[in-house]
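Box 3.1 A note on notation
Throughout this textbook, protein chains are presented in two layers. The first layer is the amino acid sequence; the second is a token string describing backbone geometry. Keep the layers aligned when reading.
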Amino acid sequence: MFNLKTILTIAVTLFALNAVGQQPPTNVLPKFTVVPVENDASWAAEWWRARHDEKREQAKSTEVDVVFIGDSITHAWENEGEEVWQEYYQNRNALNLGFAGDRTEHVLWRLENGAVEAMKPALAVLMIGTNNTGHRMDPAAYVAEGIERIVSDLRKRLPETRVLVVGIFPRHVSPYNEMRRRNQEVNRLISALDNGESVHYLDVGRGFLNEDGTLRKDLMPDLLHPNAAGYRVWAEAMEPTIERLAGALEREAAQLETGDPLVAIQAAGSGFSTTGLSG
């Protein structure tokens, strides 16, 4: 069910469209996916806003080179994925902005309310949308539009940051499940966001599937969230791309500062790979 604040926000938006002569279509669902709104669900009320404020303060007091943005799957790097996080991302000054239950509109609200204002990361890793297709069964095109808005917002707020959009993970055991198929369609649409420069797309979902397309329960026991082994699969699949993207920005910054390409190589070696120096 939709909470009252979300309904009121959408109502105000539709009223505004009507006021300027733009009649919203009557045969489609409202685009909740693109209207920033706080997650004020009853089960999140005790911690969601507090976590947002805590993460903002953390970003002000620490250097952030990589930021992860998403829902419960990203949030759980702090739980099931903690050991893998320590191994792959702790020395990269990574910050986890995953919030359980979040949909695209909640990420948009967090960005509007200072989530990344105190940081200049080399790389932002974004995965969001499975709660849109799962909780509310939003159309794939609407979810993709929400993700596109998030990427656009990140590019405006963090113009020097590369964005890595990770495809929504497969869910449910069957490849024919409606939510799984809807996630696949979202991924097809958002793959077009990859421009080869500031925005990149990566789909690692195949690593969670058996050869017949069924979900691997040894990696996602609840058919949605990875366990510790699943987080290792995710990290290993992303590693070459993260090394390439984050390391390249580190090298560029060092070379701009010193004018010496050798210093740039040394800077990359301090925490990021020198993979892809020639391209």
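The two ends are 49 Å apart (CA to CA). The chain has a mean pLDDT of 87.
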